[in-house]
Amino acid sequence: MTNFSAPSAERCLSILELLVDQPEGLPMSLIAQRLELPVSATHRLLTVLVQKKYVRQDPITERYLPTMVLAALGLRLVENTSLTETCQPILEDLALKVQELVRLAILEGEELIWVAKAQGARNSIRYDPISGRRATLHATAMGKAWLATLDENVAVDLIQKQGFQGDLVGPRAIKSTPELREQLRLTRERGFALVEEEAEAGISAIAFVVRNSTQPGRPVVGAISIGGPSFRLSRDRLISFRDLLQTAAENLSDIWPARQYKSRQVA
């Protein structure tokens, strides 16, 4: 069994997180440069990841690429929960009614991760991004919705720690702490979050948080959003989805305990 030190394990995870967004792979030298690692250490870590089949090296380009082992692990996790079978019908019903993309994210620590979606758009112009990515908290409707449920200073500290940049940051994204505080205030007053070209150019969305209705205090466990091209989704149209989206969020809150891991009989 490989003996990982904490720094080595962290570095391996950093390599995997870097590679999953690089469909053509990266050479070892560039991986080392981007992660500010010695080339020798990068080589050792990549050797371990290749041996474990999480990464492969293209024999022609010598670039390193992630394998489908990562995807298989994610699918096994989803299979061992009742997330899809319980939540998907609610997403599909809402998407059919609004005819736009509906997305669900779950809260993992201080991150929201997109895990499920339903596409309701029937025309040729669709917004249909890949799931499994982290939501940029200050720039997405889901992220704003969750941040607004936190103590304001806690929310501000979190974003200051992460920075006002990210993988998904659009032309109208929040760029300062005063602006963040104002947006969180507006979100709390509305009870839902809006973004207009803040995560991506040309994309707007509305979101509500999802809570676990069976736990004391009904803690936030995720968020649900409706999003699509801004030319189709004016602010008025987004707000017109409010009641339908809130109902879906409440329905998810009611059935959320079913998302818990399926019990297994041990022989």
Task: Please write the string of helix (H) and strand (E) elements.
Answer: HHHEEHHEEHHHEEEHH
Integer-rounded radius of gyration: 20 Å
Using DSSP, what is the number of strands?
A: 7
The quaternary state of the protein chains shown equals single chain
For the termini, the CA-CA separation is 27 Å
Structural class: alpha+beta
* Low-pLDDT stretches: 1-6, 261-267
What is the averaged pLDDT score?
86
Number of helices: 10
CATH superfamily of the largest domain, by name, is GAF domain
CATH architecture of the largest domain: 2-Layer Sandwich
Give keywords.
267 residues; alpha+beta; Arc Repressor Mutant, subunit A; Beta-Lactamase; 2 domains; 5-stranded antiparallel β-sheet; two-stranded antiparallel ribbon; 10 helices; 7 strands; 43% helix
Q: What does this protein structure show overall?
A:
The chain is of the alpha+beta class and 267 residues long. The strands form 2 sheets. It has a 5-stranded antiparallel beta sheet with strand order 4-3-7-6-5, with helices on both faces. A two-stranded antiparallel sheet has the order 1-2. It has 10 helices and 7 strands. It folds into 2 domains: 6-67, Arc Repressor Mutant, subunit A (Orthogonal Bundle); 79-259, GAF domain (Beta-Lactamase, 2-Layer Sandwich), CATH 3.30.450.
